[in-house]
Write a structure and sequence with these properties.
Helix content: 25-40%
Organism: Shouchella clausii (strain KSM-K16)
Number of helices: 4
Radius of gyration: 16 Å
Largest sheet: 7 strands, mixed
Order of helices and strands: EHHEEEHEHEE
CATH superfamily: Gcn5-related N-acetyltransferase (GNAT)
Domain N-acetyltransferase: 3-168
Number of strands: 7
Strand content: 25-35%
Pfam families: Acetyltransf_1 (PF00583)
Protein name: GNAT family acetyltransferase
EC number: 2.3.1.-
Length: 171
């Protein structure tokens, strides 16, 4: 499968596909801020409310104009944090997993962070989720676990793992 990574200026064109990807991701058990079962309308509302800006960047992984994955990069704008950014909402369609799409999305987000002089990336992911392997093998350092961080679809609480990665600063 040939995949192209494309930066979005607006989610409008892909909102339906992004919503479907989010529903499939959440209903598949991923902890990205929502509870399964997720309604498509809730996913669409999330994407409609997302404000892309100089501080919020979104990319999609496309195969024949079909969204196979997405990632967000949030550049911190606080005076004491302009050296860092957060990776958020990395999602890859179930049928497209384990084909390098997550790595490609991470790479483009990291490149953009460096272009904006960010030297520290942070992210969190559910304890025990397959994404932990991706982050560890992509050079992210495990910083620790916050127990009972997010509610799961069954009423229990799950921990979240925190990761960081230092990026070159161009010196």
């Amino acid at each position: 499968m040939s995949v192209e990574i494309s930066k979005l200026e607006s989610v409008g064109r892909y909102i339906g596909q992004l919503a479907k990807l989010m529903v499939d991701t959440v209903d598949g058990g991923a902890s990205i801020g929502f509870i399964a079962p997720m309604e498509k309308q809730e996913a669409e509302a999330y994407w409609q409310s997302l404000q892309l800006s100089e501080h919020t960047h979104v990319w999609v992984a496309l195969a024949d104009d079909n969204v196979m994955g997405t990632i967000q990069l949030h550049l911190v704008d606080k005076a004491n944090g302009r050296h860092r950014a957060e990776i958020a909402k990395l999602m890859v369609a179930n049928k497209a997993r384990r084909q390098g799409i997550g790595r490609k999305l991470l790479a483009v987000a990291e490149k953009t962070a460096m272009e904006h002089n960010r030297t520290l990336l942070i992210l969190d992911t559910e304890e025990g989720a397959p994404s932990n392997v991706l982050y560890k093998t992509s050079g992210y350092t495990f910083a620790g676990t916050i127990p009972q961080f997010a509610q799961n679809p069954y009423g229990g609480l799950r921990g979240t793992n925190l990761y960081y990665k230092h990026l070159p600063n161009g010196d």
